[in-house]
Amino acid sequence: MQFDAILFDCDGVLVDSEAITNTVLCTMLNESGWPISAEECMRVFIGRTVRSEAARIEAATGRPLTDEWMAAFYARRNDQLRAQLVAIDGALGAVQAVHAQLQGRIAVASGADRFKVEMQLTQVGMAPYFTGRVFSGHETPRSKPFPDVYLAAAAALGVAPERCLVIEDSVPGIQAGIAAGATVWGYCPDPILHATPQMLQEAGVARVMRSMAELPALLGA
Length: 221
Hints:
Layout: E1 5-8, H1 18-31, H2 38-45, H3 54-61, H4 67-84, H5 91-101, E2 106-110, H6 114-123, E3 134-136, H7 148-157, E4 164-168, H8 171-180, E5 183-187, H9 197-203, E6 207-209, H10 215-219
Parallel strand pairs: 1-2, 1-4, 2-3, 4-5, 5-6
Helix pairs in contact: 1-2, 1-4
């Protein structure tokens, strides 16, 4: 085994949630007066929190980003996730295998809020493999692209960041993993949702995977 622990991003790596969440966000931004396209919304927000882009949203809509607006976004997002969410192909099997390979030293380190992450893991049957090892960027001083959430996850597992493997699908997430001192592998499915293999490689990943099902075998290489 090349690594002592594996730290997974959640959205787009374990669960196929990014298009669902982006559709809700794009619709609400349009309703608020920002005629942003789905493609541009994906480019701006994937890998980042909505609140981290508050200044951009307020400039485009001419309105403050209020707690009430965020609550409405979370409610509409969660409704759609409950209705549509599925696991990334091959992810459940990969999680089960690496959980066994590493005697449980795996964690989720997400930029999303804890409720969303835990709800999604439960919905796709992965929650038992991450019990007590879910970390949210909403609960650290800074979220991705800063390393805080990955540093928190590594510390909780008792593993030096340099001995951790991070699995990410977005440039901000890759930047966070590298800044933490971890090795980062990029997950880039086909068809490509928002980041090309070249984009991931330029961000600094050590390897690009096209399928999450590849992960257990690659760890033994």
